Amino acid sequence: MSRARVARRIAAAAAVGGGGIGLLGVAGVGLLLTEVRLARRTVGGSSAVPPGADGRYGSAFAHRTDRPPLRLGFLGDSTAAGQGVHRPRQTPGALLASGLAAVAELPVDLRNVALPGAQSDDLDRQVTLLLEGPEPAPDVAVIMIGANDVTHRMPLARSVRLLSDAVRRLREAGCAVVVGTCPDLGTIEPVYQPLRWVARRLSRQLAAAQTIGVVAHGARTVSLGDLLGPEFEAHPRELFGPDNYHPSAEGYATAAMAVLPTLCAALGLWPEEERPEAHRREGILPVAEAAAQAADEGGTEVTPTRTPWALLKHRRRRQIPPPEPSEAADATGRARQGD
Hints:
Elements: H1 3-15, H2 26-43, E1 55-57, E2 70-76, H3 78-81, H4 92-104, E3 108-112, H5 123-131, E4 140-144, H6 147-151, H7 156-172, E5 176-180, H8 195-215, E6 220-222, H9 225-234, H10 236-239, H11 249-266, E7 283-286, H12 287-296, E8 301-304, E9 309-313, H13 325-330
Parallel strand pairs: 2-3, 2-4, 4-5, 5-6
Antiparallel strand pairs: 1-3, 6-8, 7-9, 8-9
Helix pairs in contact: 1-7, 1-8, 1-12, 4-11, 5-7, 7-8, 8-12
């Protein structure tokens, strides 16, 4: 069965509240138990609290305009929180806030409510934190979620439904949304076959289904799986952190460069070509086909058009300027407890 067809089935089940399409079949569980135990023992994970990076970025632009700062919200799991690095300026939230400020020439206020170890069932709580606090709702939000859904065998349809509900709430609050879809867990170096193949397959199935679910609510997606896959496999020592699971500072920068153009485009800050560029394999496709192609090629954006169509784009990456040392030092974040 093609990935597009599988993704359509999962998204359809999510839309009607189904949860029966599991991530692992019963027959495959016993075969993989030994590999799972070995991978967990080797990878280990990290219990360190990610550095807090909440605060204002691009403060120098405040003296050039009377416009209010942009508000950027960050939600998701340990990847969104920036686990694996030690400095606030190395987290994806800080990198994207700094890049957004440079493109918009406006200050950007970052608030990150992501939680290490979170699955998609924690997104409702995170959205509530962003929307029901004393501060205004974000202008744009970035969600990175899905890896823990795979490792904890959450049913695909339930995972997609929970993410779609979170996107819907943010969109109803007037917030633009960009989702970095499930990363490719098959790139984790200590994971061996057959678990590596299964992890890669399930990661891409979930990424494609996530795209179908969130595009229906007017959000954009950027595929992270294959983008990080070849680069992480070629340079594991540079792009993975000390725990061999989370990205390093260089790994987060690679992901942030892929997300920044879409983040800016969601706010109307990035040049939009009138027509898709065929030589860059862009085009308007049925959303399921666009989602499947994006899952196979990292850094690909899927943008909603007219149902049931979507625009597949390969945006050119832009180098992100590092946050100013004063901004990184002044950024104050909440301590986040890992699972």
